[in-house]
Amino acid sequence: HLATSLPLPSERDHLRPRIDLIAFMIDIKSKYSLKNVEASLAHVDASFFLGKVCFLVTGVGRVNYCSVEMNAIWKLGEVYCSPVLFCELELEGIRVATAQRLLRMLQICAGHVPGVSALSFGSLMRSSADD
Amino acid sequence: MDETVAEYIRRTVLKIPRDEIKTMLQKWGFLSETQLQTINFHQIKENISQDVVQLCEENSADIKQAAVLDIIYNHIYPNKRVWSVYQMNKTGEETEFFDLTDFKKKFKRRLRSALKNVTINFREYEDNAVWIRIAWGTPYTKPNQYKTSYVVYHSQTPYVFISASVLKSNLPLLCQALVVASSYHDIREMELRSHSLNSLKDIVFKRYSQNFQTYYPRPLQERNVAPENADLRIIQENRSEKERIQRVNREVFGDGPQPKLEFAQYKLETMFKSDPKMDVLDKKEPFRCLVKFSSPHLLESLKSLAPAGMADAPLSPLLTCIPQKARNYFKIREKKGFFSGSFVSP
């Protein structure tokens, strides 16, 4: 499901399946994008932050057009205990690889990978990022 | 043939893209078809231009003919220049019959009476368009063929498109000559400028697709983003909002292509409004500020802002009023009244 912001429109509540993973996309070229994500985070139930939320930062290929501070993004990941992924949507290879990563995460969050829970995977990703 | 004329023709030919040279020379009609056959148009432009000059030498070209070639070039490639739009006003209501010969005579006479050293050429095109090329000199020097102004006047309208080029000091004189020759009363500059002459014409002649107020409700099932939603597994949560944005956008911008402008400039002479605690400006004076928007195609980019999620729909009327108001340079002053706001000066 694609949405421009949270909360989701209530008229579609009955049509929505269970949500296993929320990926917040931040366009590094747009401060508005970061503000929008920060505002939307307030509408997420706390239980999601146990491994079912991730931040996807796009547009990282164009260094000249960065509007968002990297510190702000790291801080966001820290505060909400969620992993931060980076990608460049304009390059097909990276796009496909990122999609595969997200899909893998989704499988774990939905409980389809035996022995690995969303929480354990989330903490695994965080500890490797801290290195 | 004069050396300066030869050099001028050579440089004009060099400006033309190689594949277009033959067609343009044929349009010019100064060299005969047999003469054109003798030129190899596949060699490098440097050599083509030399051949052309050679043939012009044989035909004894003078500056008048060379100027015609320049007009033809600028008519086909008007976007290399920046054009400003002017509007003339008449006091009386009567529409006089436009006499081209009379216009040309009066124009030349008025201009020459003030400045003897000018080269003036006319060429008529479809749509009642008269193209005027003026090369400016000074009271003491011959006209500089490289310092030219162009005027496009549509005789059935009060609009004149001027590309003044370098010498802006001659602009008042040029305007005067136009007013006298066309039997109007005065002329004013509309704050509208662009590289695209056709787009300027579209705006003032209202030839672009405008937003018409329709009073029947549009069906909510309208879908015009079919290619994007080809995969049915992707569900757009905010579909109704997206559709609202498309609808509002369409109402504001219309369906067709937008006229091509490169800039919009807003000169602000408004009071700086800040948190009283910040106390940034002690004096209550207007905060002078210039906001300039630039784009290869400004109106199309404004049209795509809301659908791309970069701005809220509807956009500020200061941006969307550009084609209707036929201007892209604005002065915004403080509204004098009980409530603060701002209005666009006429």
Automatic annotation (TrEMBL), chain A:
One annotated Gene Ontology cellular component of this protein: nucleus
Organism (species): Calonectris borealis (Cory's shearwater)
Subcellular location: Chromosome, Centromere; Nucleus
Keywords, in A-Z order: Centromere, Chromosome, Nucleus
UniProt cross-references to InterPro entries, sorted A to Z: Centromere_Cenp-M (IPR020987), P-loop_NTPase (IPR027417)
Major subcellular site: nucleus
UniProt protein name: Centromere protein M
Record PANTHER family: CENTROMERE PROTEIN M (PTHR34436)
Automatic annotation (TrEMBL), chain B:
Subcellular locations according to the entry: Chromosome, Centromere; Nucleus
Keyword set, alphabetical order: Centromere, Chromosome, Nucleus
Pfam families the record matches: CENP-N
GO cellular component, one term: nucleoplasm
BP GO terms, sorted: CENP-A containing chromatin assembly; chromosome segregation
InterPro entries per record: CENP-NAC/CAD_complex, Chl4/mis15/CENP-N
Family note: Belongs to the CENP-N/CHL4 family.
Protein name: CENPN protein
Species this protein is from: Calonectris borealis
The organism's taxonomic lineage, starting at the top: Eukaryota, Metazoa, Chordata, Craniata, Vertebrata
